[in-house]
Amino acid sequence: RLIIFFCLFLVSSQAFSALSGSALFKGQVTRVVSLVVTAEPTAASLDLTASKSNLLVATLNEKSNSKTGYKMTISSANRGKLKRVDGPELFTYTMKLNGSNVNLSQVAGTTFTRSTSRPVNINRNLKMSYVGKLPELMVQGTYADTITITIAAR
To answer: Whose CA is closest to 31, among 123, 119, 121?
Structure first.
């Protein structure tokens, strides 16, 4: 009897040995941080004889899914001045990004930081203001400046 009981116990314990199991499922989401700058047509043909206030010169599309947020820096080659291409004359202007002042007088420019860990896909407006001058008070020529905008994960 003892042998029969032991055999039955052994058979029944093997039949019920795996009552649960598990499987691991994983996926990876790569970091995306990008910027598209779309200049307005007026940005390449500014009327420097007429004052402008908050003139839309570009739209910035920012995308990020970085879990640490991102930073965007705006700087000016001529530190916030249009320079006559073939001479030393300067024409001062100011900029705003969605209403926030952009300090272009520093070589490093202005850095805007977004600390959110949620995905971002937003458009922001870059606007320019300046005081126009009569043509007879300026040297004839083309006045220009290059704005550099960079974006990076924090």
So the answer is: 119
- Residue 141 in contact with residue 91, Cβ under 8 Å? no
With a CB cutoff of 8 Å and minimum separation 6, the contacts of 79 are: 104, 105, 106, 107
Model pTM score = 0.82
Q: 32-57: per-residue pLDDT in tens? A: 999 999 999 999 999 999 999 999 99
